Amino acid sequence: MSDTLALVRLRIGAAQVNTTVGDLDGNAALIAETARAAGAAGCDVVCFPELALTGYPPEDLLHKPAFVADVEAALADLAAAAPDVVMVVGTVVHRRDLYNAAAVIAGGSVAGVYRKEHLPNYGVFDEKRYFASSPDPGPLFRLRGVTFGITICEDVWMPAGPILAQARAGAQLAINVNASPYHIGKHRRRREMLATRASDVGLPLVFVNLVGGQDELVFDGGSALFDVDGEVVDELDRFETALGVWDVDCSEAFRRRLVDTRPRSWGPLDLRVVDLDAVVPARPGPPRTPAVVTGTSELQRCDEVYRALRLGVHDYLDKNGFRSAVVGLSGGIDSALTTVIAVDAIGAGAVTGIAMPSPYSSEHSVADARLLAERLGIRFELLPISAVFRSYLDTLDPLFAGTEHGVAEENLQARIRGTLLMAFSNKFGSILLSTGNKSEMAVGYSTLYGDLAGGYAVLKDVPKTLVYELSRWRNEVAGTDLVPESTISKPPSAELRPDQLDSDSLPPYDVLDRVIEAYVERDRSPAEIVESGVADQALVDRVVRMIDAAEYKRRQAPPGVRITPKAFGRDRRLPITNGRHR
Fold first, then answer.
1. b/e sequence 518-551, b meaning 16+ C-beta within 10 Å
2. Over residues 291-296, mean pLDDT
């Protein structure tokens, strides 16, 4: 039998791990522990996500020479302590410049390095700020008679990218390591692309993705194995850590090329091949059997978004050392959903809800806040602020005398609440979770140093209409109304003046959210939005003015979980001083 078919299967481990940016020792320990588990499972190769050693994204840590030196030292230590299994580890390497790389560790040392070629520099990505682009698509690696190529994240999105060059050079297997962040719809689009790429080059494709939260980003995992026809053989659970073990039939690439004439038009290409068999001792492994085709299933939209929010909150608190959280409970739907997510993320015993009724708070709002706390089993505190509010007004009377009661007095109530919540946070070390949603953030329907106060904004990228969907969905999953039905059904109100409703200041949320999506996420002009029939000219112009005028507020808002293709923060960077729409 020819060398091409000498060994038909390679056992691959896909390590869907949750790393922490900057924690080199912790990440290296996690990688080593997972590699040992993969070796015990008989894996020939175990693959880790993009920049697994540094955590993703390391951002301006990469501008610190000491950090880069520490990464290289950590990689050397990891290699020296590595088990017999070959490891593909995302890291950074310095070769006259800095590269986003995948180091192949074998036999106690780094046997070879693949450097990322295509560097994304859009949306949340800033890789050209930090890295140089690889000058070539190699090398290839050979183990147990199988030749495989490695690519990193964006490389595989390019139809004529490195994976094509590697296929031309004789690769029988493609490995793609990733830190691909989540947003609604990303998983389906990514899977379709990967299926197309595997089919186009006629290679089985192992896709390994990061999982976990990092500041505003959430990585959803979904690591998968695709066959030469682009079919999903298996996929790991999303939003969960996992180790996939797959026996990949690498002879299929050769068989495919005998009947598919397309690759012949590419022409041959020579790439350097690193022989791993020379440094990795041969060892008997368990019998190789084809990976069972299980396919994949889509999560429902609300299920998917909720998992992202829960994971983002859990990891932000856990990785930053917070063991408890406090939420201001207004009796409204935003604070209710924020609290439910917090309880699901860190447990009821770690969450405190504080209701702070003012002279304008309704009795049913206080009752709804208390009912929510009882149903969730969290600590509940009641701190009326009427007396504090009166003392503020008395203090300001010499300055406010002769003026009408208005927004300044309304916002005082929000700022009193923010002060009390932050005092609790400072005293007991609980992070304050702010409760504003994307609709409010967009149009500035929020109070600086009031409801914008906090360490993390759970719903920052969740439109108001989706807040309602998620609340109803969570109740359905629970089989009971965790979020009281009275909270869901009542008209939304800030309750900062008598009989106040959100609709006094804002268009209906179903219309508002469509304008925000068009203007913020799709960059449509006001004229295009009107032409699409979303709303009339007057309403669109009004909403756009509100969005543009609120930029300075958003710059002072806490970070929050990103779930849409364009969130406020890393995605959207507009100047505060901006005369375009003045």
1. bbbbeebebeebbeeebbeeebbbbbbebbbebb
2. 66
CATH class, domain 301-506+550-555, is alpha beta
The whole-number pLDDT of residue 6 equals 47
The tens digit of pLDDT for each residue in 99-128 reads: 999 999 998 999 999 999 999 988 888 999
Q: In the chain, where are the structural domains located? A: 10-278, 301-506+550-555
Assess whether 128 carries a catalytic annotation.
Answer: no
Q: Which of 47, 117, 127, 153 is catalytic?
A: 153
* Residue 553 annotated as catalytic: no
Fold observed for domain 10-278? Nitrilase/N-carbamoyl-D-aminoacid amidohydrolase (3.60.110)
Report which of 299, 300, 371 is spatially closest to residue 340, judged by C-alpha positions.
371
pLDDT for the residue numbered 5: 45
How many Å apart are CA 99 and CA 84, to the nearest integer?
26
**pTM of this prediction?**
0.92
Catalytic choice (50, 127, 440, 495): 50
Active-site residue flag, 153: yes
The per-residue pLDDT for range 432-472, each reduced to its tens digit, is 999 999 999 999 999 999 999 999 999 999 999 999 999 99
Mean pLDDT score, 383-406: 93
Catalytic entry in 116, 319, 438, 566 = 116
Rounded to whole angstroms, the Cα distance separating 125 from 264 reads 36
With CA atoms as reference, report the closest residue to 164 among 253, 263, 260. 263
